[in-house]
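Hypothesis: this fold can be encoded by more than one sequence.
Test: take the structure tokens below, design a sequence, compare later.
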């Protein structure tokens, strides 16, 4: 009579994923944000994993957690494994829905750069379904279910244009501005994502003033308020181009500053020529 020995219990995949994220990102809170769960859930997963193993993976200190020697020794293998799994899932999604393209984008780029191009893109590729998710931080395309990523970044890979900044305002507001020194007498709008824009531009322009005015968490709202005459905004060229073209906004000064960042559209893996993602990327590159 054959003997069927009991099969060893597998370690739970969710707990292993929680461990890998916390170890790679250096904390439970960061792992929770990436995985879309609470820090308490990450803590519970890792405690259960350590109990199952009978060994700790992190050192607990008053300042937080720190990966121990055991955790450090196995992390590279788990990172490689989950990266591979993520890419395999992406391949499966693409094969199952070859005409669907998911784009992750910075909210301001989604609203002010990408959205105005969508009607022409849909007309050029009516067979492709395009979904857009706005988020503040670029996703890990090895893990997240997006084919394309549209953000500002220092890496020149996938660069569509350099990030250039300069003040913009309504035509009526521009009549009050004869030189950069006049900015001290008007409201200077700021965006919380680029809170240092005014300081960067004013230093480069040789204009020593402290801007005063409201701070917005949505750049699109700041642009609309600028159109409405609420003040002067530090414009990012790619984001205000359509408003400048229409005349709703003007650049009261000629001086511009090129930042060490670029508008980037990229994919984690090589795109299949002729495929939906490839066609969308090529169209956006040609209509930048």
């Amino acid at each position: 009579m054959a003997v069927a020995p009991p099969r060893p219990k597998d370690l739970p995949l969710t707990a292993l994923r929680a461990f890998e994220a916390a170890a790679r990102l250096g904390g439970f809170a960061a792992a929770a944000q990436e995985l879309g769960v609470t820090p308490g859930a990450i803590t519970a997963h890792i405690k259960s994993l350590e109990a199952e193993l009978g060994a700790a993976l992190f050192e607990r200190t008053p300042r937080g957690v720190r990966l121990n020697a055991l955790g450090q020794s196995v992390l590279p293998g788990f990172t490689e494994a989950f990266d591979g799994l993520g890419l395999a899932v992406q391949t499966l999604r693409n094969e199952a829905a070859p005409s669907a393209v998911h784009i992750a984008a910075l909210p301001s780029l989604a609203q002010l750069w990408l959205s105005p191009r969508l009607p022409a893109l849909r007309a050029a590729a009516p067979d492709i379904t395009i979904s857009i998710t706005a988020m503040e931080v670029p996703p890990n395309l090895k893990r997240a279910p997006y084919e394309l990523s549209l953000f500002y970044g220092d890496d020149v890979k996938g660069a569509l244009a350099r990030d250039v900044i300069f003040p913009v305002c309504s035509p009526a507001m521009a009549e009050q501005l004869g030189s950069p020194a006049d900015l001290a007498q008007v409201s200077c709008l700021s965006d919380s994502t680029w809170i240092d824009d005014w300081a960067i531009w004013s230093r480069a322009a040789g204009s020593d003033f402290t801007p005063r005015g409201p701070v917005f968490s949505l750049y699109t709202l700041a642009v609309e308020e600028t159109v409405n005459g609420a003040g002067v905004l530090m414009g990012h060229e790619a984001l205000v181009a359509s408003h400048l073209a229409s005349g709703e906004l003007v650049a009261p000064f000629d001086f511009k500053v090129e930042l060490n960042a670029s508008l980037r559209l990229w994919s984690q893996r090589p795109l299949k020529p002729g495929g939906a993602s490839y066609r969308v990327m090529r169209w956006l590159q040609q209509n930048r």
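The CA atoms of residues 63 and 234 lie 38 Å apart. Residues 69-96 form the longest helix (28 residues).
Hypothesis status: open.
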